[in-house]
Amino acid sequence: MSKEVTVARLPECDLCNYGKANGVQDVVRTATVDGRMRTGSWANMCDPHWRDYGVGRLGTGYGQRLRLSTERLTHTVREANHHSIQHGPA
Ligand SMILES: [Zn+2]
Predict the structure, then answer these.
(1) Whole-angstrom distance, CA of residue 40 vs CA of residue 47
(2) Which terminus of the chain is less hemmed in, N or C, by CB atoms within 10 Å?
(3) What was the pLDDT predicted at 59?
(4) Where exactly are the structural domains of the chain?
(5) pTM for this structure?
(6) 8 CA distance to ligand 1 centroid (A)?
(7) pLDDT tens digits, residue range 40-88?
(8) How many CA atoms lie within 13 A of 55 on its CB side?
(9) CA 75 – ligand 1 centroid, Å
(10) Is 87:80 a contact under the CB 8 Å cutoff?
(11) Counting beta carbons within 10 angstroms of the beta carbon of residue 13, is it exposed (0 to 12), middle (13 to 18) or buried (19 or more)?
């Protein structure tokens, strides 16, 4: 298990979703870490939640930082450009 994992799409933060469901917060941030919380359970966490609830280190048994695949990002941008060229300005 490496300290990083590349994903095509960043998941939502589980703790933000939990907070929103319970009326604690309004925003649901993008998760940047798939890691272990101090409680022992695992979650996708945004930076602030990882800092507050995470075990504070990455690696086997602790967690992985989520990296958005740049390959896919480039592809998406190219598609968007192609789309606007094809149809022209509105
Ligand atoms: Zn969060």
Answers:
(1) 18
(2) C
(3) 96
(4) 4-85
(5) 0.74
(6) 19
(7) 999 999 999 999 999 999 999 999 999 998 765 555 555 555 555 555 5
(8) 19
(9) 28
(10) no
(11) buried
